Amino acid sequence: MTLFNTQLKPELAVPIYQQIYDHLRLAILEGQLKQGAKLPSTRALADELGVSRNTILNAYDQLAAEGYLERLEGKGTFVAQCLPEVLSTPKPHSRRASTPRKHHLSERAAALLSAPAMSIDPPRGHFAFRAGMPALDAFPFELWAKLVSRHAHGLHPGVLMYQDPAGYRPLRQAIADHAIVARQVHCSPEQVIIVSGSQGALHLAARVLLNAGDAVWVEDPGYLGARTALLAAGARLVPVPVDAEGLMVDAGIARAPKARMAYLTPSHQFPQGMTLSLRRRLAILDWAKQANAYLLEDDYDGEYRYDGRPLASLQGLDEHESVIYLGTFSKVLFPSLRIGYAIVPPALVDAFIAMRRAIDVNPPHLEQAVLAEFIAEGHFTRHLRRMRTLYAERRTSLLEAARDLPLELYAPPTGMHLIGWLPPGVDDQVVAQAAAQRQVRVMPISTLAIEPLARGGLVLGYAAVNQQQIEDAVRQLGEALREVHNPGAGI
Question: What pLDDT sits at residue 31?
Answer without folding.
Answer: 86
